[in-house]
Design brief:
This protein is α/β, with parallel strands linked by helices and 263 residues long. The chain is 38% helix and 14% strand. Helix 2 crosses helix 4, helix 4 runs parallel beside helix 5 (92-105) and helix 5 crosses helix 6 (120-128). Bound molecules: 3-methyl-2-oxobutanoic acid (KIV).
């Protein structure tokens, strides 16, 4: 039996051991990922990895609720994070209305919000109303168009100061942990040291409080591009293609189904 993490057990890992977070979008994979992860993130990256879009911006609340429900069903003993899609937390009222939907329509344990000092009032409003929040600072995929691309953060002193300020604002607003994405490793390490809650990195080096990867990236299923920070633990795409080719050949040659597959 897998023991489900709680907000307090997640916070207690700080300085003790790194946290393992991974994304999932469906029950099948969530079940496979559950035994080896502390937290499952239903990321709006599903819009790219699952729905084949070029960015996360068109993800809807309905999609997030559907996929979060699937993940919660497949991994009932996992701490599940539901990403709030672009445009669903533009002000306190909208954010609370949408976050309440996550809590009422799924069994997710918290929501995730992109932004630092600029989103502190929204994070504070959600946490004051009983919604647990995971922050997300650094490279913010939902800002890809306004920033003109995906840019690694922390390359200048000013960016470093901003990241630390963002992390402190997210913590002060009541978030229990945060993701830091696409940041220089040394800077991410300083950010992690500057707060008392876990800072989970993606493309942010090893000196943070845990790591998160998109499951389809680390299983080698997503072929469109491979960011530098991704390690492929499996050549999933080749394995799947080979298996389907074998099936196709056997169907064409009438080698499948055999006697054992036949009623
Ligand atoms: O949507 C997502 O998968 C994420 C991760 C990249 C952290 O936000």
């Amino acid at each position: 039996m897998i023991k489900k993490m709680t907000i307090s057990s997640i916070i207690k890992t700080k300085g003790v051991r790194p946290l393992v977070m991974i994304t999932a979008y469906d029950a099948l994979f969530a079940k496979l990922l559950e035994p080896s992860s502390d937290m499952i993130l239903v990321g709006d990256s599903l819009n790219m990895s699952f729905a084949g879009k070029n960015d996360t911006l068109s993800t809807t609340m309905e999609q997030m609720l559907y996929h979060t429900n699937a993940v919660c069903t497949g991994a009932p003993n996992s701490f599940v994070i539901c990403d709030m899609p672009f445009g669903t937390y533009t002000n306190k009222k909208t954010a609370l209305k949408n976050a309440i939907r996550v809590f009422q329509e799924t069994s997710a344990d918290c929501v995730k919000i992109e932004g630092g000092t600029d989103k502190a009032d929204i994070i504070a409003h959600l946490t004051a109303n009983g919604i647990a929040v995971c922050g997300h600072i650094g490279l913010l995929p939902q800002s890809v168009r306004s920033e003109g691309g995906y840019r690694v953060k922390g390359k200048t002193e000013e960016e470093k100061r901003k990241l630390i300020k963002d992390a402190k604002a997210v913590e002060a607003a009541g978030a229990f942990c945060m993701v830091i994405e696409g940041a220089k490793a040394g800077v991410a390490a300083e950010v992690a040291k500057s707060v008392n809650i876990p800072v989970i990195g993606i493309g942010a080096g090893v000196e943070v409080d845990g790591q998160v990867l998109v499951f389809s990236d680390m299983l080698g299923l997503f072929e469109a591009f491979t960011p530098k920070f991704v390690k492929k633990y499996l050549d999933g795409a080749s394995l799947v293609k080979e298996a389907v080719k074998n099936y196709s050949d056997e169907v064409k040659n009438k080698e499948f189904p055999q006697e054992i597959h036949t009623y």
